[in-house]
Design goal:
78% of the residues lie in helices and 0% in strands. With 244 residues, it is mainly α.
Length: 244
């Protein structure tokens, strides 16, 4: 479970960098993202190293190399090839997620769950971290932050649709009113993972529009916590088939 969460977060964080214009954002922001992805990919490798097949281990090794190289490139003036490293690292981390589910018969559906979860986690954390940039660059354009807030809303709605589909398939063969541990976790998953992030994202959007970026960042702290709790709860329910 920890390896899946780490790879989802790493892939989402790096993928969200494609939404940010390097001409506006300090290159250190990109470099920090790559170093974070490096640590998360390393954590995933430690978690699966004993049981994983060689293709998965190879993908994780390549992801580590790309993340490290990307952190070096974004430390250079002009970041030559920086966007290429964003794309390659994102694809490799996504490939590792596919490798984790290679033996599961529901792999296509699970991949959809992985991608939407990565989008939620990555956009929430990236938006919160970007909010801090406005503390040291208060005149920076709001365009990058507004893009990430919009991406977060789209990602949460997409994730909601995927989990709604999984739940509808599960309820076709199971009574939803049955009092078991899995059903009792569902309200927490939907409240913390969907409803709260959407409401808070709207609040952060409204706050950012009046250029109160410090308040928006504080709201995004709560969004990150709720998204993390929601996705971790989703992983607890994943083996039951109630979520993806």
């Amino acid at each position: 479970m920890l390896a899946v969460f780490a790879l989802r977060l790493a892939a989402g964080m790096i993928g969200c960098l494609l939404l940010l214009p390097p001409a506006i954002i300090n290159p250190r922001f990109f470099r920090t993202h790559f170093l974070t992805a490096l640590a998360l990919a390393g954590l995933a490798l430690v978690c699966v190293r004993e049981d994983a097949a060689w293709p998965l281990l190879t993908l994780l090794g390549v992801a580590l190399v790309l993340a490290f190289a990307g952190s070096l490139v974004w430390g250079l003036e002009g970041a030559p090839g920086g966007r290429i490293f964003i794309v390659l690292t994102t694809l490799t981390l996504t490939g590792a997620l596919i490798g984790l589910d290679a033996s599961n018969p529901d792999q296509p559906a699970r991949l959809l769950g992985d991608l939407t979860s990565a989008a939620v986690l990555g956009s929430a954390l990236t938006a919160m971290l970007l909010g801090h940039s406005y503390l040291i660059a208060p005149t920076m354009s709001l365009t990058p932050l507004m893009r990430l807030l919009a991406a977060l809303a789209v990602a949460v709605v997409a994730r909601l649709g995927v989990d709604a589909y999984a739940l509808s398939c599960w309820t076709a063969t199971h009574p939803l009113v049955s009092l078991n541990d899995a059903v009792l976790w569902l309200p927490l998953r939907w409240l913390l993972g969907f409803l709260a992030p959407l409401g808070l994202d709207w609040m952060a959007w409204r706050t950012a529009r009046i250029r109160s970026t410090q308040s928006a960042t504080g709201i995004l702290y709560v969004v990150v916590i709720f998204c993390f709790l929601g996705e971790l709860t989703s992983q607890l329910l994943r083996e039951t088939g109630m979520t993806l």
